[in-house]
Amino acid sequence: MKIRKPDALVEGDTIGIVATSRWLDPQKLQKCAKNFENAGFKVKIHPNNGLRLHEWAGSLPERAKAFTDYWCDPEIKAIVTAAGGTRTLHLLDHLDFETLKQHQKILIGYSDNTALLNALLTKCETTSLHGPDAGRFSADDSSKYLKDFFNVTSGKKLTEDQWLDSKILNYGEGEGHLIGGNLCIFTYLMGSEYAPDFKDAILFIEDEMEELRNIDRMLLQLKRLGKLEDLSGIIVGGFSMNLNNGRLPFPYEVEDLIKEHTKGLNIPIVVDAPFGHGKDLKIMSVGTRIKLTADKAGVTYAPMDTPVNAI
Fold it and tell me: Which range (30-44, 115-129, 231-245) has the least confidence?
């Protein structure tokens, strides 16, 4: 697959905010917009952010139209998803990917938007960013998220990171394009036309408020499908507020489950990487090649390419 990339983001460009799942509090939307404007960008907020259908910003067709409107708008250079939530998986069936493929756009979001990021890689062969949404960009500590976003979308060569707080489960070195995101949403893509290619890929996963027994089943499903053995590496981010609500306590933690389901794989595997629903949310560029090194010196995450066209 030849990966297609959008152009780099430069000061004065227009950033669009669209709700692909839940709606976001209007005050947070305005604060997010103000933060981007203060950094020198124009901002457009799609009207669908004002729609209300239970927790969602409109019906599936309304949200699909909103996303398509901004994706095909030549004025908009980047799209920031308003929030995560539920049913972005369902949204995929309402999108015309042949139309979307005619345009290139920076897209950033995470959680439920994992479905959209990976589907765009599979159907449109385009990169996207697993990272902060408008809610995060409106937070009191948004400066660190904005700095990471502007760096990743600058088109400049990205430097390698040393992840000092990450733990190595399996030593090694691997190269490949990134796929993944929220484990639950990602697993439900399997067997569909939207599932990404695992061959020589590096999988990154995270989740929040998920039952440990369900995490066990998801990892087992990926293993049974033969997906894990195709990978060049595995990066495990934050699994925050895991649930254990069974009649009897589930006896394994996430790290135990990763060890069990990846046993025998000769690839680098690291846990406690700095992304997820917790305080750390490093941008992971879906579709972009990286090199992952796990050795006695620690964990090194080295981008081999940029997710946008170089300046």
Answer: 231-245
Instruction: Tell me what the mean pLDDT of segment 17-36 comes to.
Output: 98
Q: Kindly state whether residues 142 and 176 are assigned to the same domain.
A: no
Instruction: Note whether residue 8 is domain-resident.
Output: no
Asked whether the beta carbons of 149 and 283 are under 8 A apart, the reply is yes
Give the pLDDT mean for 73-88. Answer: 98
Q: What is the domain extent for residue 91?
A: 14-152
Residue 310 lies in a domain: no
Residues 116 and 187 in one domain: no
Q: How many domains does the chain have?
A: 2
Cα separation of 307 and 6, whole Å? 8
**Cβ atoms within 10 A of the Cβ of 288, count?**
23
Say which residues have a Cβ less than 8 Å from residue 119's Cβ, sequence separation at least 6. 92, 95, 97, 189, 194
- Other CB atoms within 10 Å distance of the CB of residue 300: 18
